[in-house]
Specification:
- Two copies of one chain form a homodimer.
- With 576 residues, chain A is mainly beta.
- Chain A contains seven helices and 34 strands.
- In chain A, the strands form eight sheets. Chain A has a six-stranded mixed sheet with strand order 10-9-14-19-16-17, with no helix packed on it. Chain A has a six-stranded mixed sheet with strand order 23-22-27-32-29-30, with no helix packed on it. Chain A has a five-stranded mixed sheet with strand order 13-21-20-15-18.
- In chain A, strand 1 and strand 2 form a beta hairpin.
- Chain A starts with a helix and ends with a helix.
- Chains A, B: It catalyses: 4 L-ascorbate + O2 = 4 monodehydro-L-ascorbate radical + 2 H2O.
- Chains A, B: It is found in: Secreted.
């Protein structure tokens, strides 16, 4: 017995030692500021990090601790950064959502985001205050497997493609438009960017089209907007890590002549499937494998185009460059044509192909609670808003994490928001009563309980239109149990839920006039945003707040509490 | 004896009652936000108050208490408001200077500015954080005499003219330019505004000139940029209250055919003198009297034009409209010609005419301390800055008022900044060593001591240029003892100080290659900014910080302390 214990001890020690060696603490020192930049060859100011746009790519390994010492060098604006796809288990105050998990970092102040990355995947980070993501505050966050562990697929090299959209107007002007009577929509973005690079006043593919734009000279282009060419060797397999930080645009990505094998979605393995093109919504990430088995004497297009909205923004383009060809040798054919913006069947077909890789965690077979969230566009005091069950989210000035943990009265609506909507509601028509309310109540879940959310889409305020909304959940992955057309019918549709191999995601789309069912386990003590990832939509109230086990949250750093009522609480020195 | 005491009691009671009746508490509820506006007929976003640009005019009487409940409805920016010309005696935390007297008001938070107005005068208020004044955050603040008291001059009516300048670029872009390598100057403003109204794409005086602009149709102009016409009755006397909130421009104001009698400067009576035109620098205010004794069948121009910088901005214009003439009846001659921008003799002549009205408070005959501030343009780490005695002001993240009062270490440079500069310094040439330092030390004065400041102008960084700088002191009026050419010579120039009737001001200009001597009594416990009122210059470090008697400052409201090190201090619950 004693020797057994001894062996056990040796094994544990060795494992611990291995962990200590393998897991690293990665320290970053960042300054957020505005600077002049030409993301699409037109000079503008961007919000970036350490003078870089997009911000620096973080690469880490599972188990690592990331410390980002973030100093706000903006002149008059606060700032936060959300680590999209990181669950922040044990560190809910590092989720970087203004009004929810922390007070914003004021100009000239520094805050240290410190968190563990516990799962491999393709992620990104971005501003989560006002419309600072639209101002350019984003970058890639890649978590690799621990040393010695292998992905369930092979590749010889990888590329990282962070997709975004870009306006020439300032975010302040965009924000004012959304909060004006009459309402002024931000309009379609001027450019699509791949790794922060696009071309507004020229086109790589000008020679193939009747475009009035001139041809971009790849060699002469200003470096800030010169497309990042993907240099590949023939007959190899490459992993493309693709994430969309777009503010508005749903995108479709295609590579001329090459099929893509989808293997990862939002940091979770999926049953590999091949496609010619793929939709990617804001907040989503994917890994696809491509094999460079085409005619090696040629180069090929990589293109992104707009889906889901009548596109007024040109395709974003770059080149898959078969070495040793010259990068400026353009493909023989025009870039792949983006599927028609309103071909939703094409989109649904793609979404329905995404299934969990065999062996992935399965969802609990039932949920303790099922919440229905009707997505409508409404009026509030004459302002156009988005609402869930007729409540448009107006974030409080005291972040929830502190106000809930310390039981502060009056920090937010203490009445739980509605869990359902009128069964008579006709989702196919504009709302009969166009007026909504504003609120900031919280859906509170029993810790470790299973929750279903049925996201129900509907017609917008006027006209016969229903829009796409990609919903992103903080702090959790969820299983996508199914998508459906029309109004969710609990009696029929629950039976059709995919409990066998539903994919785990952190972002799921609702299609026009349809519904999407998700399930998750509320096992992460904290307060978590769940919202449409289209930034203007969130700004117009399209989100809800979830909370669970806040009493189990550890000591919240004071630095995250120095605003609103938690600041007043700290001042009294009376911490509950 | 007893009856005497009784009479005394009666008299005191009656006086108290009078005071109680006369002094009012004036409550305002303001929301600061951005909204669309067309200050110069070109739509843009402005930062205004309660949807108004400029913000509402405050009118109060001497002795009144002003309470402004200010809610920040900006999305991501903090805000403060400075009450320019109000000494904030006893309420230094209400001076509204970010980093000096208070932590900024964060979005969705409310702060109550509460202060007494103890002297009559023409004042204004404006943002004092980043370049928010340039974004449009300003308005008029008029303090009238107590009921029953009379001005030392007569007038039949009054008008209020708040002057400003306006760029079409966002302040964020302007700010970034100032903090870039290579440096990018903001450039001359697109328009001059009178009461927030200007005309960029048309000219009221187009018919008189070879302007390529069309004529503004006074009746058709959009109301936001339609000039405010001054409707007057013949043969009356009017008081024009004029204040300049310009970000950059020094202005000259003239009224066709009418002389102006200057009677007030920065809220202090001056010996009346008549002029055909007057210079007004940013931060200054004046009252002038005009008599409508000209041909009553005609209307007359009121014009403002740029001085001190090669003007690239058209004149700002409006009409003095003799009733019952129609306002659209334009004057027969073109608008008054603004004196040549570099005719500094004209400017000096005007400044030298400003003398205190007989009976005004006189300065102490000597000063306990004399500080020399050499104004130079320098480089700091390659960035262009303005410096005083080679120190460019970099404001700390903890406001001084709290950090000094509570003796917090490390909140600012505890070494007092230099009181003089190298006697060999050649003010006529660019600096030999172009590099400066940054700092945020404080000049601390013995309470109630008399202080002289000699502002010494010099050549800029390169070329043979010296610029105009209007210096504004918070918390005090000062006597302007004299202006001089070249380098101040203590042996000779002190003897020439005007101690007989120097004007009291809160803003004084230094002319190119010249000096200005001011004297004040440091009798207002608090921490006070003293800076060039040109907003980009302050942003580039052109200011110093004065403090006196901070130990006598009353209980500082916690709301002004919730940032930086004072927030940390409050958190510990250990108030010294």
């Amino acid at each position: 017995m004693r020797s057994l214990l001894f062996i056990f001890f040796i094994v544990i020690s060795a494992s611990l030692q291995f962990c200590l060696v393998a897991a690293e603490v990665r320290n970053f020192k960042w300054e957020v500021g505005y600077f002049f930049w030409s993301p699409d060859c037109i000079e503008n100011i961007v919000m970036g990090i350490n003078g870089q746009f997009p911000g620096p790519t973080i690469r880490a390994k599972v188990g690592d601790t990331i410390n980002i010492e973030l100093t706000n060098k903006l002149v008059t604006e606060g700032v936060v950064i959300h680590w999209h796809g990181i669950t922040q288990s044990g560190t809910p105050w590092s989720d970087g959502t203004a009004s929810i998990t922390q007070c914003v970092i004021n100009p000239d102040e520094t805050f240290v985001y410190s968190f563990n990355v516990n799962k491999a995947g393709t992620h990104f980070y971005h501003g989560h205050y006002g419309m600072q993501r639209s101002a350019g505050l984003y970058g890639s966050l890649i978590v690799e497997l621990e040393d010695g562990k292998k992905e369930p697929f092979h590749y010889d090299g990888e590329f990282n493609l962070l997709l975004s959209d870009w306006w020439h107007k300032s975010i302040h002007e965009l924000e004012v438009g959304l909060s004006s009577i009459p309402f002024r929509w931000v309009g379609e973005p001027q450019s699509l960017l791949i790794n922060g690079k696009g071309q507004y006043n020229c086109s790589l593919a000008a020679d193939y089209s009747n475009s009035s734009l001139g041809t971009c000279d790849l060699n002469q282009a200003e470096w800030q907007c010169k497309p990042q060419v993907l240099n590949v060797i023939p007959n190899k397999t490459y992993r493309l890590r693709i994430a969309s930080a777009t503010s508005l645009s749903s995108l479709n990505l295609a590579i001329g002549n090459h099929k893509m094998l989808v293997v990862e979605a939002d940091g979770n393995y999926v049953q590999p499937f091949a496609v010619d093109d793929m939709d990617i919504y804001s907040g989503e990430s994917y890994s696809v494998l491509i094999t460079t088995d085409q005619n090696p004497s040629m180069n090929y297009w990589i293109s992104i185009g707009v889906r889901g909205r009548l596109p007024k923004t040109p395709q974003g383009l770059t080149i898959l460059n078969y070495l040793p060809n010259d990068a400026s040798q353009l493909p023989v054919s025009p870039p792949p044509i983006t599927p028609s913006w309103n071909d939703f069947n094409h989109s649904k077909s793609f979404s329905n192909k995404i299934l969990a890789l065999q062996g992935s965690p399965k969802p609990p077979i039932s949920a303790a609670r099922r919440i229905f969230l009707l997505n409508t566009q409404n009026l509030f005091n004459g302002y156009i808003k988005w609402s869930l069950n007729n409540v448009s989210l107006a974030l409080p000035s005291t972040p929830y994490l502190g106000s809930i943990k310390y039981g502060l009265k009056g920090a937010y609506d203490d009445k739980s928001p509605p869990e359902n909507f009128d069964s008579d509601y006709d989702i196919m028509k504009p709302p009969i009563n166009p007026n909504s309310t504003q609120g900031n109540g919280v859906y509170t879940f029993a810790l470790s309980s299973t929750v279903d959310v049925i996201l129900q889409n509907a017609n917008v305020l006027s006209g016969n239109v229903s829009e796409i909304h990609p919903w992103h959940l903080h702090g959790h992955d969820f299983w996508v149990l199914g998508y459906g057309e029309g109004k969710f019918n609990e009696k029929i549709d629950v039976e059709k839920f995919n409990l066998k191999n539903p994919p785990l995601r952190n972002t799921a789309v609702i299609f026009p006039y349809g519904w999407t069912a998700i399930r998750f386990v509320a096992d992460n003590p904290g307060v978590w945003a769940f919202h449409c990832h289209i930034e203007p939509h969130l700004h117009m109230g399209m989100g809800v707040v979830f909370a669970e086990g806040v009493e189990h949250v550890g000591q919240i750093p004071n630095d995250t509490l120095r605003c609103g009522l938690t600041a007043k609480m700290l001042t009294t020195g009376q911490l509950p």
